[in-house]
Every structure is written in structure tokens, then in C-alpha cells.
Design a protein that fits this description.
- This protein has two domains: 2-40 and 134-151, no CATH class; 44-129, Rossmann fold (3-Layer(aba) Sandwich).
- The protein is 39% helix and 24% strand.
- It is built from seven helices and seven strands, in the order αβαββαβαβααββα.
- The strands form two sheets. It has a four-stranded parallel sheet.
- The longest helix is centred in the C-terminal third of the chain and has 14 residues, at 138-151.
- The chain is elongated and about 55 Å long.
- It starts with a helix and ends in a 7-residue tail after the last helix.
């Protein structure tokens, strides 16, 4: 399946540490395909959590990476609550998380991905931790986008 996807792709992107060997597989199966690398880094707004006591929860593929990010920005991680990827968070579960946070004198925080899946009323009780994508070679991304747009017939001057 990966080879079929690579055949249709204009580039491959590896985000974070390549623990699965995806970059090697891309280089082996599609050597001519540009390989771009990036990593998630805390956005400047996330620094507002420095020194704050938090209960972090995450329903993503690698929740440990999120918990590491929370501690890297200087938050005091009172508890880390990992859930399966794409976990639905009903309001009752958010209420439980908020109770745990209150017991620990903390605020509940989650990933932006999880935050967007929360029920609207639950979002009022939780703080998302914003991240941004940092490209290893931003110029390579610009070159790729320019070549794809040119191939599709878009003129940058327009």
C-alpha cells in the first residue's frame, strides 16, 4: 500500500523521529521523490503554561510525545492520562478529567487535535497546547510547492 501511495505523491513527509523506518522505505521505494522532514515544536502561546501545574490527556497515536512536550515547555505535569488514538471524549469523561485536575490543583490540557474533537461545552474547561511544524529545510518545502504549482499551471506572478 505504501508503494502505491508513493507512486501518486509529489513528496514524502516524515514528522518527528522516524521510529518506523518510513524515511528509509521512501528512499528505497521512491528514490527520486523529495523527502521532507519536520517536527512539532511548542508554539509560543504554549509557554503560558510554564510553571503551571497541569493534568494532560491525549487520544493520539503516541501520547507520550505530547506528555514530553508538556514537560519541555516547563509545565508541572501532575498526571498524564493516555487514551487510544481518535478517542471520543464525551462530556462525562471530560468532567472526570477536570475533577482529577481540580484534586491535583492543576488545569486540564490536551492536544489541539483532541481539543477540536471535544464537545463545545467541554472546550470551555480545557486548555489546548498549541504546536507548530518546524521544517528541517524550509527552502526545500518552498521549492517543492513552487514546482507543483507550476506543474499544475499556476503562475506565481498572478
Amino acid at each position: 500500500p505504501v508503494g502505491q501511495g508513493l507512486a501518486r505523491a509529489d513528496a514524502a513527509v516524515v514528522v518527528g523521529a522516524d521510529t518506523t523506518g518510513a524515511a528509509h522505505r521512501c528512499r528505497r521505494e521512491a528514490a527520486a521523490l523529495p523527502l521532507l522532514e519536520a517536527r512539532f515544536v511548542p508554539a509560543e502561546e504554549a509557554l503560558a503554561l510554564q510553571g503551571r501545574r497541569v493534568v494532560a490527556f491525549a487520544g493520539i497515536g503516541r501520547p507520550d510525545k505530547f506528555f514530553e512536550t508538556v514537560t519541555e515547555i516547563g509545565a508541572d505535569l501532575a498526571e498524564a492520562m493516555a487514551y487510544p488514538d481518535h478517542h471520543p471524549f464525551p462530556e462525562t469523561e471530560i468532567m472526570f478529567i477536570c475533577e482529577v485536575a481540580q484534586e491535583r490543583g492543576a488545569i486540564p490540557v490536551c492536544t489541539e487535535k483532541d481539543y477540536m474533537r471535544l464537545p463545545p461545552d467541554a472546550r470551555l474547561m480545557v486548555t489546548p497546547v498549541p504546536v507548530t511544524l518546524e521544517w528541517r529545510d524550509p527552502d526545500a518545502l518552498d521549492r517543492l510547492l513552487e514546482s507543483v504549482l507550476e506543474e499544475w499551471g499556476f503562475d506565481r506572478a498572478q
